[in-house]
Each structure stands twice: as structure tokens, then as C-alpha cells.
Amino acid sequence: MSPQAILITAFAGAGLVFLAGKVHSHLRDFLAVLSSLALVGLIAWSHGQYGPDNEIVYVPDFLGMELALRLNPLAWFFAIYIAIINAASVVFSLSYMKGKEKLGFYYSMMLLVNAGMLGIVLSGDFLSFYIFWEIMSWSTYLLISYRRGPALHAGMKYIIMSLVGSCAMLVGILSLYAQFGTLQIAELGEAIAGSSSGYVLFILMAMGIAFGVKFAILPLHTWMPDAHSEAVSPFSAVLSGVLVRMGMYGFLLVMYSIVGLKTILNLGAGFFNFHYILSWLGAITIVIPTFIALLQNDAKKLLAWHGIGQGGYMILGMAFGTSLGVAGGIFHTINHGSYIALLFLVVGAVEYRTGGVRDLNRLGGLIQRMPVAFFGCLVGIMGLIGMPLTNGFVSKWFIYKTLITEGHPFLAFMAFVGTWGTILSVYKLLHNMFLGQLPEKYKEVRKAPISMQIPILFFCFVIFLFGVLPGIPLRAIQGIQDTMGFAPLQLTMWGLASGAGALNMLNICFAIVIAFAVVLLLMRLGAKPRRVPQEDSYAAGSSVPAGKYHHSVEFYNPLYQMISPYLKDRVDQFYYWAADKAQGVFELTRRIYTGYAGTYVLYIISFLALLIFLQLAWEIW
Amino acid sequence: MRRLISLLLLLIVALGIFLCFSGASFGAEGASRAGKLTEDKVNFGRRYASRGLEENKAGNIVASVVVNYRGFDTLGEVTVLFIAAVGLAAILHARREEATPSKAEPASLIVFTGCRFLFPLILLLGAYIFIHGHLTPGGGFQGGAVVASGFLLIYLGCRGRGLRSAGVAVAESLSGLAFLAVALVGLAVGGSFLLNFLPKGSAFALFSGGVIPLIYVAIGFKVGSELGGIIDNLSGEAR
Amino acid sequence: MVSPILLIAVPLGLAFAIPVLGLASKRVPRYVPVIAMLFNLVVSVSLLPHALKAPIVVRTAGWAPPYSIHLVAGPLGVLLSSLIALIGLLVAVYGIDYIREGAKVKYQILYILMLVGATGVVLTGDIFNLFVFFEVLCISSYALVAYRGDSTGVEAGAKYLIQGAIGSGLVLIGIGLVYGTFGTLTMADIAANVSSVGSFRLFVSLAFLITGFGVEAAIFPLNGWLPDAHSSAPSSISAILSGIAIKAGLYAIARVVYTVYGASSILPFLAVLGIVTLLIGEMCAFGQEDIKRLLAFSSIGQMGLILFALALASATGISGAVFLIVSHGLAKALLFLASGYMIYRTGSRDISSLNGIGKRMPIMSLCFTVGAFSLIGLPPFVGFASKFTIVRAVLGTGSTFFITLLAIGLIGTVIEGAYFLRIVQGFYFKPAPEDSPEQTEGKVPFSALVPVGLLAVLILTIGLFPGIVGRVLGPAADDLLDRTAYVQHVMGD
Amino acid sequence: MSFLSSYIHYIGCFSLILIGLYVVLVKPNLIKVIIGINLMGTGVNLFLVTVGYIHAGTAPIFSEAAQQPEGMVDPVPQALVLTAIVIGVAVLALALSLAIRVYDHYGTLDLRKIKALRW
Amino acid sequence: MTGIIQIVLSPLIAFVVGVLFLGLARKIIARVHRRYGPPIYQPVIDVVRMMSQRSISHGALFELGVVLALAGSLVTVMLIPLGGTEAFQPFAHSVLCPLSSSGGLLVVMYLMLFGPLGLALGAGASANPNASIGVSRKMLLALAYEVPFLLVILAVMSQYGSISLTEIVARQQQASWGVLSVPLSAVAAFLILPAMLGIRPFDLVTAPQEIASGPLAEYGGTCLALITVQKAIHLFVVIALFVDLFLGGGVNLATFLVKMLAVFLAVEMINAVLPRVKIEDAIKFCWKWPTALAFVQMTITVLSK
């Protein structure tokens, strides 16, 4: 299937859904699901159809440049990943969004974001890359704002940072054009080979700012917690799952497809090596946001901070430039997509059923009311932590191993500490939502509807599938790495085959299953316990008052008191400070226009005098 | 403070202007001293002075330049005046609707009669000036201004009388259109806008200069009606 | 081929005829501007292919260029006159029903004359004639700004007039100095001689011209009138003022600096000026609460960017500038037109009162959004294509000076994004204010929807296929850059 | 001395221009500002005419008595000045009408107090 | 075949040794306190007795959590080499470690998570506030000791340049033991052993007097039996890991167990004499001395590489 067909379907879907929304709501929902599923199908079908046949110049002359689309392993991999998560979110939206206003807008924007992202990965040149990037940016902005209230602020924050990034990217892209006269990604790789390292660094910086903003690398991350928590949950899933990871795609594209592995590794000397500095940024991005996540009480904010933190792992793996590390980075990207999307959907389901509550201090005990959501949450946090049998484990293992064998234990330490922070905070998420006492008012909460359960269960399946048989995605990643000139890994279906440092998920899986079976057997051997209601529990002789005795507020209080003084988001504070000062300056600037006509005339005459003075003093002409 | 800054700035500007004149020759006078007033070029109007009479048969070279060589400017100029008249009417529109009819006393009989007596004479003088614009100093603008002064007199002397707005509208429309029509006929006949397509006659006769007197008459009417209209509007009389 | 002079003569004639027509019928004058601009549009577009081959030199009164006034319909001139006619046409259609108070017939006359002035400015080849048309443009805008006779309009008109009159006085001094030096007023003739003189006097004359035209072009610090005038005028006039009038001023500066003087060494100064204008404009726009004032300040910013691009002195730079003139003209006209009816609807110009208008006026808000996105430079709208061209041109120069300026200028773009997107958010995602009166007179008539919708469609179409305009940009840039060719075309030989 | 004699006209007209500008700059009264603008305009017109002036020249009008172009001053600036004067009149008329309306609305002509539009 | 034997054998060893260690612990403490103490096999008796007692359950997760915890611990055992090298080969494999090629130390670290997580899930399902408090403490304590522990493990891994435990053990046996090559790490690891085992002074998770045994408050019968088994195996795993990392593993199973016993006795002496601390103090302690020591050692190791 040609990339053109995919894009046409994507954009036409967005348009049609909007129009259908004017006609009938069922038609709209149907079309939305249909087109997002059709995209998954189309992309899946086009697997392996790479090469020149699928390079299409769709606008031959855009101000003297060619706009082209192409399909290659990297593009295909990201495309299918985008399409699947988006499709799941759209299906989830069916019941989540039911009865809300402006649904035509909502669905068409969902599909437009999707189309924009597909456009990004399918573009064959940087101009179309930029165009689709921007389409994605502004449609995202509109979607974030959709929920109103504080979402508006989040949306503004997002779009301003995003605009800064786009400006930087535009400069980078057009500098490439000025230097080499082409923007075709395929040609740029050869063209840039001979340029000086300073120039390459400039390009990487310019692009890096754009990608970094989207990717929420540490000093550029501040939009993300707000945006993720304020967006509607299905879109948060897309946002955190794939949209943010477009930055990853960008980094991969620029660093390895264009600049090339060798140049990257030799950029700078010793400690001040480009990829080394990037890795440190990644490591910092892991630790600080993860611990900030620990302090959050808003379920989605907590997940959003984890989204930032997990991004650090990807950068860490990717920046290292070893086969294993990059594979880990890419693999972690899709893994993260699967479980963070899952978690956002779960939170969405809870939110849906409890009437919009996502404050962790006010929930609890929902396990009995919403078992599927609980299961999804459990699997999700296992993935997020990286417990064995989940896909998160494999990719993290790759990254850790890279760090240790490459001799960077400090980076590894930060990654590990980040993992521990993750464990603490996601357990809090699980505990405060599903475990403990069920508050009185949620007694009547019903199960999540089927259209929510399907995506949740689907992601659970994916998490385990890739966790036990990581070879499936890793094959595809291998294909990507081949095009970038990495040494091939010794892959097997169940992990990595290379001597003592090997990984065999199948063995671990068997061992765990057997151990499970044995323990279950043991349990059967013992006396069977009597089922009692959840509330009927030991409380030193008196019964526990229902709904009032749930330990969730300040769950990790001792730790909060210790670390919270150190974990203010000072970057965000700095941005606010700067914005505040800038506004002050703006206000002062406005005072130039005093409203007194004489002053304006004075300006005119001073301008004239200035010109004459300049000429007298410096002979400007 | 403000005065000081203003003076300083103006001083710089003045210095700049002063230094302008220190260099090469400036203006027609400078050129003539440097002996650079050549006739084949457009150079300081030499060409018009030497060949204008022969080309347009109009004794007043300024009229020739105004109506023919730089007639396009004149069209713009007429337009500007038109804009001023229309704009002024538009701006004062609301005011005129609000205003109440003035109850000023009528002028004394002597003034009244004197104005009525002078009025046709003034019109005649104006007409004379614009009709002879191509021969003597003066022309459409000057004539038009004189005509307008006649209306001013009527306003001052004979309260309650004046131009009828419909009449003004028709006059300014038709005179403007006449100007354009003459110019466009030139375009149609000779392929050039404002072309002096009529037989030019012999110099210094009343019927000479081709289209120049025609256009001057049109301008005269137009300027007269527009200035009249402006006066009418500024007088603030209620309608 | 029709003579380009008809672009001026025909609308002028129609304007002259309106008072008579107005006597005959009250309704007819409303449609005259539409006819005039339709004629102009058809003629300019049909002239475009000819102008691309070679500039059309039109003589008046039958004399060859140096001896009389002439028009030079080069690619740039015809492109701009097409733009003027296009926007003029759409705004004229909008004006049919929009103008509800005051002397409506007078409005239509002034409206046509203003556009005639702008057309004359971009077509003329004579520096004094340039001044005359400039005055036609300016004086009719003074009148139109104050047209309604309300307090803000009159105040803005008076201030505009004071500054504009000073500006035109300065221009006239500049012209006098030029004439005193060369004894000619034909731009090509001056251009042919200018290299032979090169003295302080020339610079002073240039300074006077730049300052004088700069007042209309809204270069900082000459733009004190702009926010007042653009915000107080009727919206249709604001659209023309922002979309066309200030561009005419900039065109005049470019023509003088490039063609007449060939003063490439003051371009860096203009570039700095452009960026300063951009930043000041955007910074002032940021805190505005009045929608039209905000749009006006945003125009200042965009003018700065255009000036900056013009000052790049490269073909791509100037094409970028011209492209931005086109895209900003379309977008700003759209924004003012759309806001006009929104203001009618809500009865207030406060941005906060426009909250939630997306629901009440869906099409207008959608079009406004398109225009705002285009101004920010988001693809796939036309603003992106133009800003893209400019950035490309800057990086193409490879000069650190310009790239640094660009980097500073991009901050302005971000600020612009911030305040426009805030408005868009308000339209769709903020609740309408409780006390907003549901005014029935805000019902949008068909005659307003068509131009606004058409502008939005144009913005999108040209954004998707920039080649539509792109083909003209290169020749237009050469038109400005290539002095010798210009002189040769005009002077014959 | 020779400088003064040959440039005395220019000194005159530029003095007018600068005085006009000064008035506009420092006088807050709208009418005075308009007068300043007109002063400046007059100066400019004088300047234009002066540019075309030749020492001891004659008016560029032929008659049956005078048919020699020699010694005629430049007719072009005179045409220009004609245009400029008319434009000046137009601006003046508009300015006065605006002044009337401003006074209607604000009850004052002091520009320092007419600042409803600012910032 | 040997693989299967190993798979069966190593959890079994862990179970037996772990349970005996538990018994031993009580005996030792009693002796230090000048009491007689229960017999060393008392835990076995307890487990069997509890298996037959009928208890209550708060739902499927309440039980499954226990299963998860125990299963995780069992699998962890399989990843840890329990002695044996080329010198003494009880089986075809050189080392008693059934899953030696399945990810190494990194997997061990993650598998050790199953225990606390399973218990936390089970306890959380019970809606008992004491259980929740206990779980919260458990999580915090884990974070507290993991920071130095990670530094320790990383120092060892970079010292020997491998993430495979078997390889690390083999390297130690060829050259010097970990306790000599990374001494500060060994000290740090020893300091946090009580925290990892959840014994005094860090027994605040299951503090019976304060929060009614915390997570265990609701458990009884079969479940409590399995939790006891899990505790025993966890004890075994931790001590075995220490031996593997710092004391060169064991030439064979016997030496391995002897080393384990030595370490265990040392730890129990601390357990016997120190009082319980608050969770805040536990965190502060863990993040102060052990962390500093481990950090210094890691820096030295990295710089000397």
C-alpha cells in the first residue's frame, strides 16, 4: 500500500468524521472507528513494501522544493504503533465521550492528530516532516483545550513551548537546505557526511530543541504534566503513548538516519561528547520527574510525570549508540506506549464511572466494582515498573545492560533509582484507586463498559506478549537498525542469545508459571479460607467504620516530608518567572504609545534625526 | 524638557539640510550656473519651456505641464479635493443631523443686496480665469477657487441661501467625469491617456491648446463645486 | 491587452459617478465598489501574464517616459494591484450590508478612492505621482477612519491626520531635494543618474523619503497612529488599512530604496528596524484586551517582518516579503472582517466578551481561526509558506548578522502565537459571558459570509499550493532588485 | 556672503518648515497643530518653487510679446506646487472638520487630554 | 534432566534452609535474651499447623497476592547460584543455578520485587488500614535500602564487568573475593541487610505492637503459612546473594551454606540487640552511611577501571 493511500485515508477520515458529525452521531462514531481501524489494516498490509516503489512525490514544487513520502522499516514501525494506539483510544472514546459536546470536533481532531503523526513518520523530506509536525502540534493544542477550565492554561503552555520548538526546527531544517540544497532525507545523509562537527552540532541542537520539547526532556518538559492531566483520558493515552514519542522518532531520524552513527559518537571529546551529554540529560529526566510523580495526588498528573520519566530511559538507551542500547530505546518507546496508554485508559474508565474523580485521596477499593480495570491497572504498573514477563522489563533490561557493559554505572544507578521511584508511586496509584476501603458513595459503581474493556484487555495482551516473546517487535527493530548501520544483535524469539549475559524470557516465564502452579497447589492443599466481606476486618476489637478509615491520604508521608523541599519543579517556576517578567516588559513597551499626538510626531522627527545623525557619525550610506 | 528635545532634534535635521547645500550644484539655479541646463532632457523643465508652446500651443507653459505633461497628477489632485469634500461631508454628517436650524438674524439689507449684486460678477471672474487658463496666469484651480468664494459670500451675506446639495453632486460628478472622459477619449483615439487629441489651433488664441481649456473648464467646475460643498458643510447649517 | 491605466481610470470614474447615481437611487451606490473592484481584479489578473514577460510601460499624454508621467506595470506592481483588487472586492461585498450608519454613499466613494490610491501607488513610475496617489490613499483613509464621527474614530482620525500630514510634508521635501539634484521626477531617470552623484544630499533626501513613507508603512517608531486608526475605523476599513494601505507604504519605501537609490548599504539598518518593529508590535499586542487593537498591533509586527525580509536584498528574501504581503493581506483582512460581525453580535470589542462565540457564530469563528493560524505561520495555511520563504532566505544569506536577527524575530512569532491562540481558545473553549446581550442585529448576512469564507478558502488553497502565487514571486523580486533592467524598460533604449 | 545671497530663499523656506514642525511638536492645541502643519506645508511649497527658480527669471508664460524660453523659470515645480497646495487645502479642510468633531466629543482641543486611545 | 533436577532442587534447598534459619533466628535471639527459646524446627510445625487452620479471605486478590509473592521468591532462587564450580561438580552444570542464562543479576533484582508487591496487593485487598500503613512502610523501606543496594550491585557489576551472577562468582573464585576487591560495598551491603530482611532494627513493616503486624494483620491459615514460607525463602535469597556477591559464592553447596550461616549469625546478632526505629530514621540511616560508603566504592571502582 502506498504511503499516499495511508495519508489520504487518514486525512479524509478526519474530514469525513467532522462532516458526519453534522448528520448523525452514530454515523460519526462508526466512521471514526472504521477509519482508525482501516488505518491499522492499511499499514499492517503495507508491511515490507519498502524501497523506491513506495517513494512518492506528492507535491512536485512547493516553493521550489519537492514534497515526498516514503515507507521504510523505521516509518512502518512507528506508523503501525501510532495507528494501533490511536485506534484503541478511539474505541475507548465511544463510551467515555458519550454525551459530551462537540464530539464531531473531538473525533475529527483525534483523527487529525493521528494523520499528522502518520504524516511525520511517512514524510520523505524535512519540509513535509515540518508541515505534518505542525499540523500535529496545533491539532493537539485544540484537543488539549477541549476540556476547558484549567485545560486552557495547559493548552497554552503546550503550544507556546511547541512553537518555540518549531521555530528552532524550522531554522535547523532551512539551514540544511541552505547548506545542501535539498531536504530529501535520503539525500541529506550523504550530503551531511563531510560537514564540520560544529555544523552538525548546530543542526542537532536546533532539531533537538524541537524534539526535546515534544519529548519532554528535562528542561523542556514543563508543559507535559499539565497537558496530560487536563486532556480527556483517551487523548492522554495518545498524547503520552505516541505523540510525545514523535520526538523519539525525530531523534532517531536525525541522529542515526541522517547524521549517522559514526559522526554522532565522535561529536565532541571525552566528557563533553554529544551523546554522552544527551544520556546525562536522559538520566536526569528519569530521576527527577519520577520522584515528582511520587508527590502527585492526581492520577493523571502522576502518570504524566511518569511519561516524562520513562522518556528518560528511551533517551538513555538511544543516545548510547550501541546496537543493544538503541534497540532498547526503540523497544522501550513502544512498550511505554502500550502500558502508559493502558494506564490512562484505566484512569479514564475510573473517571468515567466515578463521575470525573481522579484525585487519589478520594478513591479506593474499586477492585470489586471494576475488576477488569483493576487487572488493566495491575498489568500496566507491572509494565511501567518493568516486572519480568512484561514488555517493559525486556526493554529496560536492554538499557541497563548497555549502561553497565559500556561502563557507566552512575547512569545505570540513576536509571535504577528511577525504577524504584516508579514502583513506589505506581503502587500508590493502584492502591489508592483499587485497594483499601471502598468509599460509601462508590458502592453502586458499575463495571467499565465493553468498549472500554476491549482496549484495556488488548493492551494487557500486548504487554504480556511482548514481554514473553520480545522477538516479535525486536525483529522489526532489527530491520530499522540495519538501515542505520548498527551491528546486528543475536536475537531469538524470546530474548537475546549471547552467552552469560543472555536473556531468555521463555525460561523465566516457564519458571514463574511452574512456581505459580506449585504454590497454587500448595494453597489447595491447605484449608480453604472462608470468604468474608472486605470491610469485615481486624480492628482491635471494634468494627472498622465503613468508608472512613482508608489509609490513602499522604500515603508516603515520611518520604514526602524528606524529599518534597528538594523536588519543586524549578524549571517550571523559572519559566513562569520569565513569562511574568516578559509580560511586565510588554506592558512597559506598550506605554510607548502614549496617546498624545505630539509625542508621536516627536518619534517621527527623532527617527529622521536619527537617520541623519547616523549618516553624519558613521556614514551608513 | 520637551521643547529642549524638540529643538535638539530639529537642530540635527537643520544641520542635515544645511549640509545638503554644501555639495554639488542644487536646483535650477545651481544647474544654470554650472551650465548644465540642457534642453533635450527633461532637466529642470527646460524641455517644456523650449518646446511646450510648440507641442501644445498653449501660452501658459504651467498650464501645459499641469494639464498635459503632468495631467495625471492633476487628476489625482482633483481626486484629493473630491475626497476632502466627500470625507468632510461624511465626518460632519452626524453633526448636521444633530444640529438645529440656526435662528441667526438675517443680514442687513445693504449687505444682502450687495452680496447678491457681487455674486454673478465673482462667478464671471472665476469663469474668465479658468477659461483663459491656458493663456494667462491662472487656471481651473484658481478659477474654481474664485467661484467658491462667490458661494462663500452668499453664505455670509444671505443666510438660508446657498448651494443645493443635489446641484453640487451633479456638478462635481459631471465635471469629474468630463475630465476623465476627455482623458479616456485620448486613450481611445491615440492610445494614450490624456492625449491632446484635438486640433491645437494657433498659439495665444482662445481656442488653442487642444484639450487643455476643456479640461481646465471641467476642473474649474469641479473645484468650484467641491470647495462650495466644503464651505456648505463647514457652515454647519442644518439641512 | 487592456491598458493598465484603466485600473485607475475606471474605478475613479465610477467613484465620480456615485454622487449622481446616489441621487437616482439609494441602493445602487452600494454595488458600485463591487463593480469597480471586480473590473480591477479581472484586468489585473489578465495583465499578469503580460507583466511577467516584461513590465508594461504606459505613457500618458502621448509623451515618452521622462517627459510625462507614466505607469510601470511590472510583475510586482501587477501582483500587488491584483491583491488590492481581490481584497478590495471581497471587502466591498462585505461592505454592502456592513455599513449601517452615517453617510453611506460617501463611504462607498471614499472606499473606491482609497483603493484607487493604493493601485496608483503600486503602478506609478513617477516619484511625484507616487506622492499624489499616496495622498489619495492617505486622505481617504483619514476620512474613512473618522467616517462614523464617533469619539474614538474622530480622535484616531485626527491623530492619524497629524502624523500623516507631517509624513507627507517630509516626503515632499525629499522629492524637492531629489528634483533639485537631478531635475527630473521619473524614477527610472533618477535611478540612472543616482550613481553618478552619491553625496550627503542624496542621503538626506532618502532619509526624508523613508521617514515620510515610513509613517504610512507603520515602521517603528513612526507608527503611533496605527493602533488607534486601525482599531477605531469600521472593520471593513480596518481590513483595507491593515491588508493593503500599510503595504502600499512599504512598497513605496522598497521602490525608493531599491530601484531609485539602489541604497543597499542601509539595508542592515532597515533589517534591524524591521525586527524592532516586529518585536514591539507583538509585545504590544500581547496584553491587548481590545480585539481590533490587538489585530492592529499584530499588523505592526507583521510589517516588521516584511521589512526585515525586504532588507535581505536577496531574490528569495524579497519574494518572501512579497509573499508575506499577500498572505498577511489575506489573513488580516479576514480577521478584521470576521471580528466586525463578532463585535456587532456581542456589542463589545473586549476579547473576553468574544468568549464562546464559536457556538453562536460557527462559520465566522472557524474562518477567524484559519486566519489566526495563518498569521502565526502554522501549516498548511498560507502564512506558513511565506514565513518559510523568509526563513529560508535568511539562512540562504548565511550571514550571522541576519541569522541572529531572525532568531530574535522568531521570538516575536512565538508571542504572536501565544496571543492568537489564546483568542481561539476563548472562542471555542471558554464559556460565553453571562451578561452578553443576544443582539439580533449581529445576524450575519450572506454578503458577509461570502467574502470571509472565500478568504479562508484562499488562505488554505494558497497554503496547500503556494505555486499559485509562487510563480510570480521570483519575477516580482527581480523587478525590485534589478535596477538596470528597470531603467532600460522605462527609458527605452 | 555669497552663500547667504544665493541660499537666502532656502534658509527662508526651511526656517518656515522647522518652525512649523516645532509648533507641531510643542503645541498641544489641535488648532495650533493644524496651523503648524500648514506652516510646514507652506514652507515645503516655497521650497519646491525655489528649486525651480533661476536668478532673475521670468514666469513660464509665453505671450505674443515674450516668446523666448531663455530666462524662464522651471515650470514643473510650479505645477507640483499647484498640486501640493490643493492637497494641503484638502488636508486642512479635513483637519478642521475633525477638529470640530473632536471638540464636539471631548469639549476640548488640548491633545494632551484627548487620549482615550492609547497603549 | 539435570536441568529439571536443579529446578526442583534449588527451591527445595532454599525452603529447607530458609525455614531452619527462621527457627535458628528465634533460638539465637532467645539465647541472647537469656531465654530458652523454641526448638529450631518450630517454624515447620507452625507452617504445617497453619495449613490446616480455616481462615478468612477478602477476595481472590487477597489470596493471589500471596501466591504471587511466593512464586516470585521461588523463581528468584532459581537465578541465584548456590555454590559449585569446576572444582567440585555435583551435576553436569558447573553451578547450581537452573536459570543462569536468563538475564542475570538484573532479573534477580526485579524478581525480588514480586515478594513485596504480592504481599502489598494481598494486604491492600483487605481494606484494613493497618495493612495499608504496613505496606506504605514496606515500600518506603524498600526505597530506602535499594538506593545503597543498587550502588553496591553496580559497583560489583562494574568491578567484574558482567551482569551475570554466575560469572561474577566465577571471577571471584579466580581472583579475590568481593569483600576484598570492593570492601566498602561489602560493608554497606552488610549494613542494609537487616533492612532487606525486615528484621530489627528495621522490622517496622510488620511491627506487631504498633500496627498489628501490618500487612499480615488479616492473614491466617494457609495464606499465613505460605507467607511464612515466602519469608523464609526471601531470607535465603538475600543471604545467598550477599554470599555470592562478596564472599565468592561457594566451591560447592556445603561451603556455600556455611558462608551463609556465618553471615546469618552476624545479622541475627544485630537483630537480637537493637530496638526498632521509626521509618523516617530508617530512611535517613540508609541514605546516609551505607549510601555514602557504596558511592565512594563505586567511584573508586569506576575510576580505577
Write the layout of secondary structure elements.
The complex is a heteropentamer of chains A (621), B (239), C (493), D (119) and E (305).
Chain B: H1 2-20, H2 27-34, H3 46-56, H4 61-69, H5 71-98, H6 109-131, H7 140-157, H8 165-190, H9 212-234
Chain D: H1 2-26, H2 30-51, H3 75-106
Chain E: H1 2-32, H2 42-52, E1 56-57, H3 60-79, H4 105-111, H5 114-124, H6 129-160, H7 165-174, H8 178-181, H9 183-197, H10 208-211, H11 221-246, H12 253-273, H13 279-304
Which quaternary structure do these chains form? heteropentamer
Would you identify the regions of chain D where 5 or more consecutive residues have pLDDT less than 50? Answer: none
Average pLDDT value of chain C? Answer: 88
Overall number of domains of chain D? 1
- Total DSSP helices of chain D: 3
> Which percent bin holds the helix content of chain C?
over 70%
Description of the molecule:
The complex is a heteropentamer of chains A (about 625), B (about 240), C (about 500), D (about 120) and E (about 300). Chain A is about 70% helix and about 5% strand. Chain A has about 625 residues and is mainly alpha-helical. In chain A, the strands form 2 sheets. Chain A has a 3-stranded antiparallel beta sheet with strand order 3-4-5. In chain A, strands 1-2 form a two-stranded antiparallel ribbon. In chain A, helix 2 (about 25-45) runs parallel beside helix 4, helix 15 (about 325-355) runs antiparallel to helix 17 and helix 16 (about 370-385) packs antiparallel against helix 18 (about 410-435). The longest helix of chain A has about 30 residues, at about 325-355. Chain A starts with a helix and ends with a helix. By secondary structure, chain B is mostly helical. Chain B has one domain (about 35-235). Chain B is globular. Chain B starts with a helix and ends in a 5-residue tail after the last helix. Chain D is elongated and about 60 Å long. Chain D has helices spanning about 1-25, 30-50, 75-105. The model of chain D has no long low-confidence stretch (mean pLDDT about 85). Chain D starts with a helix and ends in a 13-residue tail after the last helix. The chains are: A mainly alpha (about 625), B mainly alpha (about 240), C mainly alpha (about 500), D mainly alpha (about 120), E mainly alpha (about 300). Strand 6 (about 530) of chain A pairs parallel with strand 1 of chain E, so a sheet runs across the interface.
